[in-house]
Design brief:
Elements (H helix, E strand, L loop, with lengths): L4 H57 L11 E5 L9 H12 L5 E5 L1 H9 L6 E3 L8 H15 L7 E5 L9 E6 L17 H79 L1
Parallel strand pairs: 1-2, 1-4, 2-3
Antiparallel strand pairs: 4-5
Helix pairs in contact: 1-5, 2-3, 4-5
């Protein structure tokens, strides 16, 4: 049975309202992506400064960053919110593929945490992703403290997994600790701290910088995934609206035809009464 034009018009209005919501979500995600990407150069500059100081401290201490042998830890920075398509699932699948026996998992992002549980990945420590770039340093500090608490019982490299920098790319995994220490350049300075103590402090700061950069990359990747999901939703809405608009035109035409037939069939009766 063909729907009445009024019913189809109501459904069209509903689609338009959904379209407004998707446009708003896309605008918010676009702003988050731009803000996160805009903050990355500052984090990279901080990491470069720490790396230079680390080279000096390592040369004075006569030791490298170490790291120990073992499976280590895996930090997964995923999605906190919904409307990001299959992004959380893709990260969970990549995490399961990257795990080695004994690896301790730290996860950031409620949606990805749920996806990890669905894939059977046990998480030792978790937190919600920072909602804005301004909140990243505080979260990075908390994660750094958690990692430092766990390295004693889970020695080995620390790796980080997050979404790709490019839209549609595969999740990226990288070793963030121990850092690569370049040879010191120029004359070595005099220190007011013991070289070994300075080295340990700089190693912690290098870990913090690497975590902060991973969090910011994850924030940008999540926003990009949401923008892609909203683009797909808008395409689907356009297709559904076009079909519904055609159905409305057909229903309206049928209604007009029915009304004309009723009017035409009613005229003889009216003439007979006259």
């Amino acid at each position: 049975m063909t729907e009445r034009p009024e019913q189809i018009q109501s459904r069209l209005s509903g689609l338009d309202q959904i379209g407004q919501v998707t446009s708003a979500l896309n605008a918010i995600a676009s702003g988050q992506s731009a803000a996160a990407r805009g903050a990355l150069p500052a984090i990279s500059a901080h990491a470069a400064t720490v790396a230079e100081a680390l080279a000096v401290a390592a040369a004075l201490a006569g030791a490298g960053p170490g790291g120990g042998e073992g499976p280590g830890l895996l930090l997964i920075v995923g999605a906190a919110q919904g409307f990001s398509g299959a992004y959380p699932t893709h990260l969970a699948e990549a995490a399961r593929a990257a795990l080695t026996p004994g690896t301790a998992v730290l996860a950031v992002g409620g949606r990805t945490l749920a996806a990890l549980a669905d894939k059977g990945v046990a998480v030792l420590w978790s937190a919600e992703q920072a909602p804005l770039p301004e909140a990243v340093p505080d979260l990075a500090s908390r994660i750094t403290d958690a990692i430092l608490d766990l390295v004693g019982t889970h020695p080995g490299p620390i790796r980080a997994l997050t979404g790709a920098a490019d839209p549609g790319g595969a999740p990226e995994i990288a070793t963030i600790f121990p850092p690569e220490v370049s040879p010191a350049r120029g004359a070595l300075p005099d220190l007011t701290l013991p070289p070994a103590e300075l080295l340990q402090g700089l190693l912690s700061e290098a870990l913090f910088a690497a975590v902060a950069r991973t969090l910011m990359q994850g924030l940008a990747a999540e926003a990009q995934a949401r923008m892609q999901a909203m683009a797909n939703a808008r395409n689907n809405l356009r297709e559904r609206r076009a079909k519904m608009q055609a159905a409305w035109q057909q229903a309206r035409q049928e209604q007009m035809t029915t009304e004309m037939i009723e009017l035409a069939s009613a005229r003889p009766d009216a003439a007979a009464q006259d």
